[in-house]
Amino acid sequence: MIPPQELRMEARRKGLPLDLVEKDYALGWILFGIASSSLSGLCEVVGSCCISIRQTLTSRRVNGTRF
Fold first, then answer.
1. Cα(2)–Cα(49) distance, rounded to whole angstroms?
2. Distance (Å, rounded) from C-alpha 29 to C-alpha 1?
């Protein structure tokens, strides 16, 4: 884990809002955890930060988006 003061320094250095850096850091750990678990075969990353569970038998579409 990165100490909070290091996240603040990194946000300042890159000129980004702290909450954005914290969110990206948390999402990175979540994705690492999923990729390292038995869920890795059931999940796929959709878009920039959305995680979708694959349906193995059928795929549902709503307004052109596959679920």
1. 21
2. 9
pTM listed for this prediction: 0.60
Q: Which of 51, 45, 46 has its CA nearest to residue 65? A: 46
What is the domain partition of the chain in residue ranges?
A: 4-66
Structure tokens at 1: 């884990």
Give pLDDT, residue 48.
Answer: 60
Backbone angles phi, psi at 37, to 5 degrees: -110, 180
Residues 6+ apart with CB under 8 A from 61: 67
Radius of gyration (C-alpha) of the chain in whole angstroms: 16
What are the residue ranges of helices labelled H in 1-67?
A: 4-14, 18-35
